[in-house]
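Lab notebook, page 48
Experiment: co-folding of the full assembly
Goal: obtain a model of how the components sit together before planning crosslinking
Operator: M.T.
Materials (sequences as entered):
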Amino acid sequence: MATRSRTLLFLQFRNSYSGSHAAAIRQQYNQQQQQHQQSSLLATSDGYGDTERVGLMDSAETTIELMMLPPKWVDIVDEVDDELEKIKVNVQKLDAMHKKHLLPGFDDRIQEERDIERLTDEITQQFHASQRRIKRINAESRHSSSNQEQIMSRNVQMSLAQKVQDASTLFRQKQNTYMQRMRGVELRNKDIFSAVQPINSSISDDPEEGGFTGAQQAFAEQSNATITQREQEINHISKSIFQLADIFKDLQTMVIDQGTLLDRIDFNVEQASVHLQDAVYELDEGEKYQKKARNRKIILLLILLIVGLFIVLIFKPRHRNDPAPAPAPESEKSHDLPPSQPVDPSVQPPVAPPQ
Amino acid sequence: MNAITALQFYIDKMLTDTPGMKVLLLDTETTPIISMVATQSHLLQKETYLVDRIENNSRDKMRHLKCVCFLRPTTDSIEKLIQELRDPCYGDYYLYFSNRIKKTAIERLAEMDEHEVVREVQEFYADYYAINPDCFSINMDPETTSLYGDSFTSWDGTSFTRTVDGLMGLLLSLKKKPLIRYQKQSAMAKRLATEVQFQIQQEGQLFDFRKSDTPPILLVLDRRNDPVTPLLSQWTYQAMVHELIGIRNGRVDLSGVPDIKPELKEIVLSCDQDSYFQKNMFLNLGDLGANIKSYVDEYQTKTKSNMNIESIADMKRFVEDYPEFRKLSGNVSKHVTLVGELSRLVDQGNVLEVSELEQSLACSDSHNNDLKNLQRLISSPKVSDASKIRLVQLYALRYEKFQGNAVASLIDLLYKNGLSEREISTLDTLMQYGGSSQRQDDLFSNESILSRGRSALKGLKGVENVYTQHQPQLGQILELLLKMRLKEANYPFVEGSTSRDRPQDIIVFMVGGATFEEARYISMLNATTPGARFILGGTTIHNSRSFMQELVRAQRTTIPGQGSDSVRSRRTQGGIQL
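Observation: model returned without errors.
Model output:
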């Protein structure tokens, strides 16, 4: 698996070129400087201000581009990675505690059990938290418009989901073995009791040795207490397993099925270009529709205009035809009448009297 | 000596050497090279969140990403890379080339790197397609590239450089500095062998590996010496899928299968990622059927145990086994569909009968019987046209020198059964390509009394399986090579370098394409021969279809129309030996 690095050769070439680039730039700068000197000589203005401006302009050319800033969800990746690191540490701690707890001992175990419980809870919570974060990527990336960024965020999601899933599987396995061993301890204890009980009863038949029975009874009660306690612990653990199962199901939808076509690199690359083509096609289509819609709008507007004009044409002239020509004769009449009226009385009276 | 792990090593190295979020840019050739040995989820694990082609001009600017470019140093890719460097989309660039890159190209790249974004320039010699751990190809698709120049004895220029590059890549990636032997009668093999030798000497520093006790051997063979193997029907899993359906870069297109589920339209067959396939790829269809059944049974018991979830413990177990179970269920349906389709195709094309005759033609000497069967099958409507042609081709190859062979009458029979002239003319092409005058070795063991006796002895032993009795000629050559009895007169070393030791590492390269039958043979040989390791490569991996396609393409591009003419003339004259 031989390899050969060509970096040095490349850098050599680049340096020689960038050397000539730099020389070119320097030359340019010198010329500028000379011009400035000339202008400053001519204007005899303060040279400091000029150089300062030159400096500012230079730095403006090399400002950091805004493109350098990663999208928001990139931070989530780090967060999840941190969380996973913490989970790993916690799981290791828990494992050590489990081992210690399973060892037979005489001292008080309640504190230990509480610790285990607390840690288990914490880990489960951490898993929940990372799951929520992974989901957030989806929401965050929806804002970004670019196609590639979306592909990328999806890939990031997948890989994180895979990581979390692996970690949770490991955790579940640990829990499981612990639980089985706890059961084993419990069973052993039960065996001891079943062995103890008959002796107990046989002994309690004997009134002379009542004191002994009392001690035995106390022991039995204590054992009962431990049994219920264990029971609780086991329930607790299975609860946390259930919670994990939920997370697991959720993540399962995000993880790639290994060994299928979806896991092929070339397939994904092809798909991306297909998507891109689709997108271009859809854009074109969209533009077409938009154009069409625009045309339609214009047509609709024109039709409306025509209809409107028609209405105007139908109503307005009638308005003018009916009331306008109608009143026109009337007005003519009325125009005629008033002069005739004064005429009429003048005419009629002479007509009437003869009748 | 494992082609797949060698390539995986390169990929892992280039992705882990650049920490952080990154994008991987590939070109038309490196995409399938990588796809065949690595998966998307593997890349994701290495924080490679985006994979794209360098040809894609509409990439978004994401300066917060690092960019790993893995490209073949072709002029095309370099041009594209220069464009990319002029207007970089990403923050830092780590350039990896799949072969030796010219100094002038490095100089041009350096010149164009005005933004000084390039951090690393490396050569990683992953320049070939790894199919099996002991089988690789240069992937020259006969549909798009022509292997032959003006005739069957000369290379096409670009194909030649590609092949040399591929072989150099293999040697470098496996760290082998071999002694090279070639098939004497083949001009193409000779040219390839001398060129590789020349290049090795040119790159003396690169090939400065730790000396092994016995030098590895690179044996360059020519397909012309054995045109029979790619024509035979296959019965082992991998070979059969390739023969009947076709494997392209580890992908199998099942969209032609009736009533196929949408998720199985295209499937992946990789011996690296699919352990079930790895176990069964060399089994014949019968054993495969039995294995598939037990696989399904295993699946069923798992489903049953998953069906009855009654207690918390069951549920827990279910959740735990679920990913494994899901994977299993996907794999089971994949293989069941594939094997189902294979057996459907076998039934449909009457392949059992055809194959029996093929094997008989290839392996035993029974002219009258074979001819009778052949005539019967040609008249049968159940046999596909392609199979009919193939049978006549085999017959013509086999009984080329036999007095009173019936090739002409068989051609007439083909015409009568409605085969087109274009199809029948392939017979002539094949005879020009691989007729006995073109072959170096005694392919059918019928040329000398000694070999006849040997084959008769073999016949006495009887055969286990009628359908898989054929052994590729490659087998004999390798056997002789291992016994140190491969004649230097026939398989000379390049430039007189010789070795007296029994070789340990043997790389076989088949100009004109290898086959999966040979790949299987090599794999068996690897398993059964202690102290020797083999790896097989070819310009491509052929099935009968692609093999004939390549020949016809060469014929068409070089001497147009000649093939069909000669068949027609022969037909009108009637009864002249081919």
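Interpretation: The CA atoms of residues 318 and 324 of chain A lie 8 Å apart.
Next step: discuss with group before ordering constructs.
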